[in-house]
Amino acid sequence: MEIRFSVVIPLYNKEGYVLETIKSVFNQTFSNYEVIVVNDASTDNSLEIVKSINDKRVRIIEHHKNRGLSATRNTGISNAKNEFIAFLDADDCWDIGFLEKIKELIIKNPKEHVFGTFYKEVINGKLFTPKVNVPNKKAGTSWVIDDFFALNKRNLIITQSCLVVKKIAFKSIGGYAEGITFAEDIEFYIRCFNMFNLVYAFQPFHFQKKDVMFSITNSSITEKEYPLLDKFLGKSDSTDSFINHNLYCFCRRFKNENEIKKMKFYRKKINKRKLTLIKLMLIYLPQPLYLALLKLKKIMLRFGLNPTSY
Description:
The chain is an alpha/beta fold. It contains ten helices and ten strands.
C-alpha cells in the first residue's frame, strides 16, 4: 500500500511564521507528500516568502480576495493530488514524526478514513499540555475512537493541524462551511464524526501557537459568523453534550470581549444542568469581577500556569 499525503496550508498574513511551518513539513521523516499553500489574499510578505522556497513539492494557489479559512481549506482539498489530506495552519508546526505516525495508523487501519494525534499549545513561548478527557495511562498509545464527542467535553483532543482525512471521505462529509468564519472546525467535526471513526494516537505531534495575531479572516471575534450548532441536536447524547460545551465556549468568548448582549444570547441556549459549578459561576459572574479574573489568568500564563474551567 503506497501512501501519499497532500499537505494543505491556508495562508493569510503569517510572514513571521510560514517559513518555519513549511520547514517542519520538509523535516518530516516520511517524505512522500506534496505541499499546497493556499494564499488567501495576504497583505504582508507571506506570499513572497513562500515563493522564495525552491522546492518542487510546493504548489501555490492564490485567492484574489480574502475568502476565509473554510474556503481556503476547500481550495486545498479540491486541488489535492494525493489520497490523504493533512491540514497545517501557517503559524503552527509538526514534530518530525507526524506523517510517519499517521502512515502507521493508516497501515494498521486500512478501512478507516480519519486520523489524528494529540498536540501541545504554545503560549507566550511556553509549552502547555491541554487538559483533555483521556486518561494519562493511555499516553503513547493509539486506538480507534467510535464516539469522538464523548472524549471532547473539555479541550479538544485534536486540532485541524493534526488531522488527516482520506480525500474520498469529503464526498460524504462535505467541505468546510464557507459561510462560517469562526469555529468552522467544530461544525466540521460534528458532520465528520457522526459518519466516521477517528484513528487516534495520544502523542503530541503538533505545536499550536495560541498567541498569534492575524487569523485567516481579517475580522474581529465579534464580527465573525458563528455556526448554528442547534441544528445538529438530537443525533446522540454525546453529540448534544459536545454542542452544549461549545455553546458554553461561545458564551465565554463574548463575555471575554465584553459583548454582553451576544453573551446572553448564547447563555440562554446552554443546558445549564450539563455544566459544572465552576462553569455556571463564570457565565453568571458580574462582568467587572470576571474581567479581573481574565487579567489574573494572563499574569499566570507568563509564569507557565494555565488555569482553565475545562
